Amino acid sequence: MFYDAGKIFTGLAIFLVGATFPFWYAMAAGKTAYKPEPVFPTSTSQCVESTEQMIAGHMEILDDWRNEVVRRSDREPIEINGTAYPKSLSRGCGNCHADQTQFCDRCHEYAGVSPYCWECHVEGD
Amino acid sequence: MAASRRDFIKLAGFSVAGLCFGGPTGCATTAPVNGQGTAGKRWALVVDLRTPCPEGCTACMKSCNLAHNIPQWDDIKHEIKWIWKEPWEHVFPEQVHSYSTAALRELPVPVLCNHCDNPPCVRACPTKATFKTASGIVAMDQHRCIGCRYCLAACPYGARSFNWLDPRERLEEQGAALSRDFPTRTKGVVEKCNFCSERINDDASALPYCVEACREACSRHGREPVLHFGDLHDPSSPLLALLRESGANTIRRKPEIGTRPHVFYLV
Q: How close is the nearest chain A Cα to the Cα of B132, in Å?
């Protein structure tokens, strides 16, 4: 039918097996796609913004806080419903999200991002 | 209606004339340059050497090291120094002559970043990682430091240290309890005294750690403290009174190079 059909179809078969190998491998290892499950604090359900906004924009908020605190010496805490949140990764975020491995890392690992915050900032107790 | 050339020139003429009569007065804004709480302040430190430090006292250094997660290295090439003591002849070489006594030459003098009005380190920094705040502090933004060490070369007082090795590892190795209130640094960035800007901005009555520790240590020795801290822009500040009314000679390190240090020594 085709010229060199045997070689072409063998090549295609090898390619298909190779290209889909990660899927087969993950299935065989029983490790399929997962959803990151960060552990939320039980003490409170309130954060400085809504959950959706925090998921999408926490990095911008942290950047703004960094610029305000470090460069403009503006350390005025964020006040929401009578609770004052210091603009600090350790003392602001860390007060509720005490364990970085249980919260931050869960999504960061899933998304394949590795921010270097904790190379300097000391995580919660 | 389309403006004629004549109308346009007239309008332009009136506008220029308007500028001459106090037009742009609104341009002189009084807004603080750098955030609130610090505007109009000028933090400074006075080292009162009229009675030298109690012998062997390291209270200022210890409390600073603890609060700012500063590691201690055995090799002096790796040393990280924010506040430390240096013999008089090194701090004020121009004040020493052939007839100076050994006691004066070796007198331990506390030294730290001078938070100059005209800081050469700020001028040298290519990334603006080191900058001057509105309240006069020469501050550092470790996020921006690229470790080029131009500032180390520029500082005439040797008040900057470079992290040749990972400070966090060293602190953990020494079993030091890390302070959560202040980040550690990473390998490859420069650091220096920050006049405890994380602390004094929160509360005007709060003092830098070294000054607080000095007060405590000196009161245990039943004497006046060596380190004093305050706002030189506040006319009622005790620091200003100390500089102006103590009757002592007030000197600064290397005044001839024009950096205008804000660490003053009473002698």
A: 9
Q: How far apart are CA B186 and CA B183, in angstroms?
A: 10
In sequence order, what DSSP letters do the residues of B72-128 get, joined into one string?
Answer: --SSGGG---SEEEEEHHHH-GGG--TT--HHHHT-EEEEE----SS-HHHHH-SS-
Q: CA gyration radius for chain A?
A: 23
User: What is the value of pTM for the model shown?
Assistant: 0.81
Would you give the distance in Å from CA B10 to the centre of its chain?
55
Token look-up 């003392």 returns A91
Q: Tokens in use for B33?
A: 């340059």
Contact A96, A43 (CB under 8 A): yes
CA distance B182 to A103: 21
Is ipTM over 0.85? Answer: no
d(CA B194, CA B113): 8
Map residue B241 onto helix, strand or coil.
helix
Contact B180 A122 (CB under 8 A): yes
User: Is some CB atom of chain B closer than 8 A to the CB atom of A71?
Assistant: yes
Is residue A90 within 8 angstroms of chain B, CB to CB?
Answer: yes
Query: Which of B35, B131, B143 faces A68 most closely, judged by CB atoms?
Result: B35
- Characterize the bridge pairing of strands A83-85 and A78-80: antiparallel
Q: What residue segments make up the domains of chain B, in order of their start?
A: 40-266
Contact B36 A74 (CB under 8 A): yes
Task: Render pLDDT for A25-84 as a digit per residue (tens, 0 to 9).
Answer: 888 887 777 889 999 998 888 999 999 999 999 999 999 999 999 999 888 999 999 999
Residue-wise pLDDT tens digits, B121-146:
999 999 999 999 999 999 999 999 99
Could you name the CATH architecture of B40-266? 2-Layer Sandwich (3.30)
